[in-house]
Design a protein that fits this description.
The protein is of the alpha+beta class. It is built from 3 helices and 2 strands; from the N terminus they run αββαα. The protein has helices at residues 2-8, 28-38, 51-55; strands spanning 15-17, 24-26. The chain is flat and about 40 Å long.
Length: 58
Amino acid sequence: MNRFIDAVLIAGVDYGVIPHCNKPTLLKSGAEKILNYLGLIARTEISPFTDSDFCSLL
């Protein structure tokens, strides 16, 4: 798995540092590449909630 990550994932495209965070984070494109490597399929669900709905919970 480490060889796959080093060979296939691209810094700034598949993973990167998000503002206000110190560690690199896996981004959507990187997650999709790992799913394909493992033979899995991504499923998405459309939510009726908006960002403001979640902000009120904090």
